[in-house]
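Exercise: predict the fold of this chain.
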Amino acid sequence: MSKPEGIEAQLDRINDNIGIGCVIVAIAILLAGGAIGNGIAAGLCFVLAVLLFLFLAKSESEGKKKSVESKDPIRYRHYEGGICELVCEAATERDHTAMVIYRAEDGSIRCSPKDLFFERIEVDGRPVQRYVEISERD
């Protein structure tokens, strides 16, 4: 079962807002340090704000990288024999049609409507699935 439509976009927006929040905190600390009137205090506040921002930005990007790298690629065999690798699922901007983005054997990146990618078709009078997931044993 797939996630509700748009949930990944919402999570990305939350992550972006965390980064923006870090910038706002850094500016607030800088302004507070400047309001003190002490150049050393302002400088220390600025350095601390930058370090905090860099730390949070780095940990956020590493979390995204690990979640992407930890997934093994899912491979599919076309009913005519070709093999492709699932890159991701997406939706069109205009009408939110679910799409499958995949890498073909020749390395090209292609997309297909999800319904079409997973549909059953008739070949030589018998129903077959257009793409079938390849298990690790295959």
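Check your answer against the key: Residues 7-69 form one domain.
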